[in-house]
Amino acid sequence: MTFRRPPACRKVAALVAVLAILAAAAVPAEAATKRRKKAKKKPAPIPEVARPHDPFEVTFPTSDGVRLFATWRPSPAGPAAPAVLLLHAFSRERRELAELADELAAKGFSTLALDLRGHGESVKKGGTRIGVSPSLQTSPNAFPRDVEAACSWLRPRSSHIGVLGLSLSGNLAAIATATDWAEAGVAVSPNADRLAPLAGTRPSTPKGLLVLASEKDPGRAESARTLDAAGLEPKAVALYPGTAHALELLRTEAAAKGAAFAWLEARLGPVSPPPAPVTAVAPSDPAPPPEATATPAPEAQRP
User: Fold this and answer.
1) Residue 177 pLDDT greater than 70, yes or no
2) 128, 183, 204, 295: which one has the fewest Cβ atoms less than 10 Å from its Cβ?
């Protein structure tokens, strides 16, 4: 007598066999995945970028150990002069602000042009090299600490402090005035949406802030109005035709640059322009003394 399995039993047996095959196949696949993870290469190190020597270079640390690099151009008046902290846009660096620093120096200001962390030469935290990351644009523990450290470094070296920030750094200028790190600020083409995340738990209501933007720079005219509306007096906002953004606005719109300089002069007190260089003039030859005239000796009188 031949025993036949019912059809249902045969189906169950077939299913069990398929599952056993799949399980057996999964084991080597899982092992292969682990091997690939172990063999995954570490990210390539961020390359060093050679830069020209800066005779005015200074360095100082942040509260979390980042070594910041900056260009310090002190006024001949020394600590009696006000200073302006210059902040580049995101993914830029301090060296492109040299022309702006020269113009402010001609008006008697000291200037400190800063490389924010991850930019330019400010790329070391302890022994670790750091790079530009999008997360820096909203972190309250990154760029704001750089600005706080720079303002603290400037405090004993200047009478008053102003901050001029481009694009994202316009929000840093606003934070500097809100926290009393600086007495005045200029925000050029800021994105107001970044202000609250960057400030974190710090005060974020600017005071003594001038906001500049182009009318057709996408989103920045509205941001300028928003930032101005949120600020305390003294405050001002100015919009200009065109689409120029950040540093390009100051380069191409003379009225914008003039407004920025006038605002800093008004808020930071009187500024004495540096003395004009004195050209040494060789003294002229003195006139020769008059020739001596011989006087005849008197004749001896006769007795």
Assistant:
1) yes
2) 295
> What are 112's strand-pairing partners?
72, 85
3-state secondary structure the chain: CCCCCCHHHHHHHHHHHHHHHHHHHHHHHHHHHHHHHHHCCCCCCCCCCCCCCCCCEEEEECCCCEEEEEEEECCCCHHHCCEEEEECCCCCCHHHHHHHHHHHHHCCCEEEEECCCCECCECEECCEECCCCHHHHCCCCCHHHHHHHHHHHHHHHCCCEEEEEECHHHHHHHHHHHCCCCCEEEEECCCHHHHHHHHCCCCCCCEEEEEEEECCCCCHHHHHHHHHHHCEEEEEEEEECCCCCCHHHHHHCHHHHHHHHHHHHHHHCCCCCCCCCCCCCCCCCCCCCCCCCCCCCCCCCCC
For 249-292, write each residue's pLDDT tens digit. 999 999 999 999 999 999 998 676 656 655 545 545 555 555 54
Which pLDDT does position 86 carry in this prediction?
98
Quickly name the fold that domain 57-268 has: Rossmann fold (3.40.50)
Q: Which two tokens stand for residue 28?
A: 């080597």
Pairing label, strands 83-87, 66-73? unpaired
Each domain of the chain, given as residue ranges in start order, spans 57-268
Per-residue model confidence (pLDDT) at position 113: 98
Provide mean pLDDT across the span 209-221. 98
